[in-house]
Amino acid sequence: xxxxxxxxxxxxxxxxxxxxxxxxxxxxxxxxxxxxxxxxxxxxxxxxxxxxxxxxxxxxxxxxxxxxxxxxxxxxxxxxxxxxxxxxxxxxxxxxxxxxxxxxxxxxxxxxxx
Length: 114
Description:
Blueprint: H1 3-17, H2 19-32, H3 41-45, E1 53-54, H4 55-58, H5 62-66, H6 71-77, E2 84-86, E3 92-95, H7 100-106
Antiparallel strand pairs: 1-3, 2-3
């Protein structure tokens, strides 16, 4: 079994035993997903020229407050996310900018196989 498959199975087990963190991840991936992010001027107003924004303002978003999200929850919830990433300092978050081809390779598909 390759590393990507192991990570996906690990995530499935982890989130099934931690439904709150699943909700946190779902919400964060919505914020940074292709449907919301391009239209969310407020969220994008927090980003720098490389797309990074501090994690702390996210904790004050209404849905994050409802879920009582802490910074450590954000970091843990986005482990292995294909949508958003955390920087090495664990202070900032941004939308991933991977090309579709890279995501397909990670998932074990080839361009020809589609």
